[in-house]
Amino acid sequence: MLKHYRLYVVLLFSVVMMTGCLNSGSPEGHIDKILDKTSEKERDFAENQEPLNKLEVEEKEIYEKTIKLGMKEYDKIVELSDEALKNIDKREALIEKEQESMEASEKQFNKMEGETEKIENQKVQKEAVKMEKTMSDRYRSYEELYEAYQQSLANDRELYELFKKKDLKMDELQIQVDKINKSYAKVVKANEKFNEITKKYNQEKESFYETAGIKETETDKK
Questions:
Q1: CB 4 within 8 A of CB 63
Q2: Disulfide engineering: 41 pairs with which of 49, 91, 104, 177, CB 3.0-4.6 Å?
Q3: What pLDDT digit, counting tens, does each position of 11-64 carry?
Q4: Residue 16: beta bridge partners?
Q5: Alpha carbon distance 40, 45 (integer Å)
Q6: Alpha-carbon distance 36 to 107, whole Å?
Q7: Which 3 state secondary structure label does DSSP give 115?
Q8: Angle at 188 between CA 186 and CA 192, to 5 degrees
Q9: Which residues contact 82 (CB under 8 A, 6 or more apart)?
Q10: DSSP string spanning 72-101?
């Protein structure tokens, strides 16, 4: 049986910084601005999650309808397969948009380079360095998730092209299903890793604010 999943991702906190003892011209102040803009760059990434999950559910329904049909209903199988292929195209477009958002986020976050070294308070500097390292790990983790998801889409595409073959053999279909299940397992694993690192980053970001004496008000979790 083909495995399906609904991906979800842990998103960055979006916060409005309140005036406190922080000097906006200080290294901490510069980092604050960079982090805020970094979250903004991931807005498309956040907004993609709901439509992506919806498409995954729709594709699951198409698959279940397709496997219930016999070859006497070949025209219906082709119709459903074409519908699934359009679904894959839409998911691919969303993933590309998501990846562009993450690239923009990383480019913005990289502006932190050199700022942490200027922080005079060692405790604050330590928190900033830790947070910076975790965020770098998060970007690498997303690349793994992106590549795994792209491969899973390619395997899904092969499956629905197979369904359109009139002389499709059951062993041929099973080989493809096994291939898809393995790629899905990689996506789920990569997704879990990305979520764990994002949670860790959010915690370290809060710790940095607290140690630096920055007051924050959480407006939403994107």
A1: yes
A2: 104
A3: 776 444 333 445 557 888 889 899 989 999 998 888 888 999 999 999 999 999
A4: 217
A5: 10
A6: 13
A7: coil
A8: 115
A9: 160
A10: GGHHHHHHHHHHHHHHHHHHHHHHHHHHHH
